[in-house]
Amino acid sequence: MRVSRRTGTPRRSRDSGDTVAAFFTVTENLLKTKPFQDITVAEIITRTPHSRSSFYHHFDGKVDVLVALATSVLDNAYRGPGLWDAQPGRSRARAMHASIGPTIAMWTDHGDVVGAVIEQMHTTPVVAQVWKETFDKFVTAVSAQLTQQWIHEEITFPASSATMATILVCGIERTFYVSSRGLDRRLPAPESAVEAIEWITLTAVQGRKPQNMAPAAAVFSPQPHLERAIDGTSTARAEQTDSTADSILDALRSLLLEAPLDKVSVAKITARAQVSRSTFYFYFDNKNAAFAALYRGLAEAAAAGLRRLHTIDRTNASLVETTLTEWLQIDDHAVAIMRSALHEWPRRAELRTVYREGMSAMADILESILIQDRTDGVALAGPPPDQFAAVLLWTVERSIAGALAGEDHLDDLGQVISSLSALLTSAIYGR
Asked: 224-379: CATH homologous superfamily?
């Protein structure tokens, strides 16, 4: 089998199966121990009985191995009639539910491969195309179901059915990614997210409280980790800075308005901040550490914005939706930081820690609100509040990432924000 870089699809020969399978197995095993960008072709080859010439007979490089391996995983996961083959209506609704099973199996058995694809898709177009083909099939199928249901039930959302379908599929993608990678304590495994995913999907499809899902317990006891969210104290580590460190971060912030993080160097930062290289390294270990500090400030501001929900009358759904919309609004400087953060955090260790802290702080806040409002009878009984809060926020996070990347059906950031606000309000409080 030889992979075409232009199409990302393998050309098979009858006698190549065992050789290719060996390269696949070694690559998948390596992905369990290190990120894809740190794997070399030499590592792949030396862990098989095959030669370098044999490797290059089948592949142009390690990216081609990932493309072919991911293609195989996706083909096997969704082999046979799929969600997209069912007719819109009850048949497709059943197929939407049934598709969760093979999706969980794929992430459970091959999460390292699919995770590597997710991490590389914003920087490597041929990898992105592999994922996009399956992603788009789900979006098209869910969009058709939404269109039919909305017309029949006279339901409206701020966005088109294609945009809402994309938001739903984005949420599922990101939720399974973080749960399979162990990146969110609220979602220890893909199975833990299923109830929340189905609730959110049915909210979009039905536009009201999902009728065919058993409600969770109506009363929950706050956990110790939630008390910090309720009293308004930030859980993120405080940064000790002075005016020089602030100047460095301001310089980085302004450079991000001009270029993504990959294109910003320490030399450019020091020149813009008018400090020496040694001064930069006195405050920060490297560029990634400086960006992590910059993002921490943004994450703390985002948590403070979400905390405003504690101060409003949440029996007023319109006020809740307005507050959520205001929380999600992003100015130009924040867009520049978020665009790099959203796309880079899975691949950069320094940023990943800070990013998870920020997401966890917001989940604490939303979970505490869910518990309080369910206890007071304001919010709908639904999925467990810890898992529900996590899935809602990862859906927001991935959808905003897609909007900032200009992905299909998410190119209008304002519409995406309005849709997310409406979806969260409906999922938590009903229509």
From this structure: Tetracycline Repressor, domain 2 (1.10.357.10)
